[in-house]
Request: fold
Amino acid sequence: VGLVPVPDERLNKLSKISKSKKTINTTISFVDIAGLVKGASKGEGLGNKFLSHIREVDAIIHMMRCFDSDDIQNVNPTVDPIRDLEIIETEMMLADLESIQKRFEKNNKKKIDEEQLKILEIALDCINNDKDLSVLKDQFNKKILNQSGLLSIKPRIFVCNVDEQSVQSGNKYTKDFVAKFGEENTLIVSADIENQINELENDEKKNYMEMIGLKKTGLDLLIQKGYKILELETYFTSGPEETRAWTVEKNCTAPKAAGEIHTDFEKGFIRAETISYNDFVANDGWVNSKTNGKMRLEGKDYIVKDGDVLNFRFNT
Reply:
């Protein structure tokens, strides 16, 4: 498991304004598992173990090999990212099928929640008849769907790993892949270049990226995609002790956002002192923002916006 700080230029600006002793990024966790092979759902390779790991994540990143190399072994005789992805997707679907059937058997003895039963029935119909499982997202909310533990409905990001020469404009493999699966959730990165960037100091990183024509690292782009696909936003707390970024889902209410800091904040929530990021910067912090009427007191129904700087009032 890799815990990666989410880069956010706004955080450092806020920290400077508040003269904070500490600056704390929000983080994103990446769980790296070995690639699934054909037959994983039946336990081939280390299949079952890895499939259980995938059940616990919010989104799945498929790292697809899109480069030729005699030095790096491949399970398959040829490089074919479309075939590789289809193997993995099939294995996850077969694992779902097995999981659904087991739960139906259990249901005879111990009743499953009606809503979950409905999800499993629709999923089974979709898998058996080769229909798109995304219909479930139109009928059930995200929280209920997540409880189903189905792998095939998790959001996907496709990362095409290319050689250094192809990082700017892709290659024949990426072009074929994008033609089939679309651009929206596909990223082109070079793991080789990412490794080199990671070994450099900040100034050197900047120079190296400029030299090869990269505006952002693959990791930064991946985090951005992750936020988009999971519908996440960031709010901030900022003061002399620390400036900190917090991750919440879009359309999150103020008490729920407060609960990210501590459950007591959510339980005893009274009000949220709220300043937009732009106003906080333009007015040089809390004091001037209050003086200039840019701070609002928001109640329990307030929907937190990306970039809000918040201070929670709560009863203990």
Remarks:
- The radius of gyration is 23 Å.
